[in-house]
Amino acid sequence: MMGSTPSNSLTLLLSLASLPLFLATSLAAATPLPGKALPTKSRFLPINVTSGSAMFFAFYESPKPHSPPSQTPLLIWHQSGPGCSSMIGNYFELGPWLVSSDDNNSKNPIIKSNPGSWNHQFGLVFIDNPIGSGFSIAATQQEIPKDQKSVAQHLFIALQTFLSLEPSCISSPLYIIGESYGEKYATDTRYYILQQNSRLPESQQMNLQGVGIGNSLTEPAPRDQLEEIQDETVRLTREGRWREVKISRDQVFDWLQNATGLAMLYDPRRKRPYETDRLEAFPQKEEVKVALGVEKGMIWELCSGVVGDVLIEDVMKSVKFMVEFLKKIRVFLYHGQLDLTEGVVSNEAWMKDREWEGLQRFLKADRKVWEVNGEVNGYVQRLGSLTHVVVLGANHFVPADQGLSSQAMIEDWILEKGLFANRKR
Q: Which positions are annotated as active-site residues?
């Protein structure tokens, strides 16, 4: 959200920072967000105290932690875009409650418990990132980051503040997950955290343990292999003309969708695109805003066109070198089998081009059939700190499409169980 004036944004930020969220519990009976579905905490994290720019977050404690709070893994979720709200992940994909429709009124959005939530055993944080996205406040358009380094700096500030607000999480194992373009946020933030950790005393370091990358846009060049339009996209990529590359890539997808007649490239099985009306309407409700600690007059967008335009030149830039840097921590790549936009083949192409001493051994490692509750759910390929999973029958939005399978996947990877168990590196 773009703030109307810096002073108003700062006033809002300071007032919310001093307001305990659960003063809103009394509203539970009158809100479509009942008390049991409220986040453990949701508020704003200051990015620029002077101007009032701030990031909005919603934090959910684990209802069934496998360890004490200080040792319970904490997942930080980043949405795609650029400019899309993490409330998509929260209420559409992997949060504890998902937006659905009233059985008596299909246009009335309500929420229902999600049996495949990723916070079953872990803490889960959704951050509207970068500023200007979702409920997050950008006091001016000029403050919206234009590159991943600036995005990472903002996120580092936000995470430091969040951990100071949650003392029980200060030493928690930290896992940062990004979907599609959100993978860039995840990768660059991990890169930045590792750099900062090397300069800080151990007591001030973040306990970063791993990065998860889902249906990612890590290295664009190998994937653009169509004829005339695709060749143009490749040429622009090599010349580093990033705004034009993004536009050309969109033309490729438009051509493919028109030529195939598919409803959407995220999932060729679907006969119609996702219906986002309910999802878009839910955070707009005044009762929901109040329950989340957001001012009623704030404007929420599914995806911010302003943020998307500011970061358009960043979309097609490679971050493969940063993934290679992350060999110091665990790296988890997962892909839905049916995604035609950021799918299995294109991501395996850049993986084969990684500069990693164990690459050839990884490529020769067995792809083992992965089962959940006796049913085949895909395959797992693993060597040392690198794990790659292809989720059978899943589309671009893996947690939304295969909820229980994705829940088992993230839990087994973090807890190193089954095919994800730690082996000699």
A: 180, 339, 396
